[in-house]
Amino acid sequence: MDTIDVVIIGGGINGAGIAQCASAAGYSVLLLEKGAIGGQTSANSSKLIHGGLRYLETGQISLVRNSLSERRALLRLAPHLVKAVPFYIPVYDTSQRNQWAIRAGLTAYSILSEFDPLGRFTSLPTVEWSNITGLKLQGLKAVFRYWDAQTDDKALTQAVVRSAQDLGAQVLNHAESGVIVHKPDYCEVSYLYQDNLVVQRASCVINAAGPWVNDVIESLVPPMAKERVDLVQGSHLLLDIPAPDGILYLESCFDKRVVFVMPWKGKTLLGTTETVLEELNGKPESTREEIYYLLGIYKHYFPAQGSAEQLEALITDTFCGVRVLPQLNGSSFDRSREILLKTSFTHPRLMTLYGGKLTTFRATSKEVVQWMESRLGKRDAIADIDITPIL
User: Where in the numbering of this chain does the FAD dependent oxidoreductase domain appear (predicted)?
Assistant: First the structure.
């Protein structure tokens, strides 16, 4: 049986990025995705390539700096998929975050962007507030405009996978992994593909299965302890309302969370929620509570659009992504979005990815490949992903 360098389980954005980065570094790669590439969480995010302005509130400075650097790289490498877009933050007399706090946050955001031109922000003059169609003006104290980026998350994932394939990676859709036998010198990965059970020997295995990451851990022989995590659902609503000119960064009128109102395919996209799931069975679906939570926030800021019932009639689609967050006390909104790359001395040829962000998939991929180099030694690189376009 031939031994390849690495089997990657999971064809979301992290699995795709690792396949591209590892292939570029000269490793032999097999990527297994039980469904369609980019068909789960990586197709159901808020579709933002951003630094994460709100993460400054919880002191995640390194995450914001890293995200802003990756935003700059993706705008350069995938300009047809990642587009700069203005964000607007309205501040009201009832807002928990006053205009001075917002200004301080945006100043820090600009500094962390290393004074990238996209890091600029401004306070809009009063005469321009009404240009944000339908926005409630009563009690409005300030409107700030700054810049981040938006993408088609599924299309971006698929483009990264195509790049990995061009660099030599083998990618299998509808290939579900089974038992993984961890041995001292290699792993044997069983998977079902086209009704055939296949066993592949690999020097390393990367578990990038997203919300199903602990299901992969449960398939290990010998067994290994799992991290305690919460599966947190984020729901989005697509409303048949003409798309706004930019993205509205809104403070929830129910709690301190941030919700976005975004343009998407000519309509208005609203999201997201944070609902902890007891378990994940099948395709996640928006709950009634999530729908009314999002519609309530939208109605609060855009009262002229009608009642909650009228807005519900304008919903043309709903979708959910599921995040993996460390199991801690308190609100999921305040938990770290830093990815956890987990290894174990009992299973030294396996790395597991818990969590992560769409924006930082390239940085995550580089960390994983550095770990591979420590296990397998360096290979002769065939490409540099920092200059390889994502087409």
Answer: 5-360
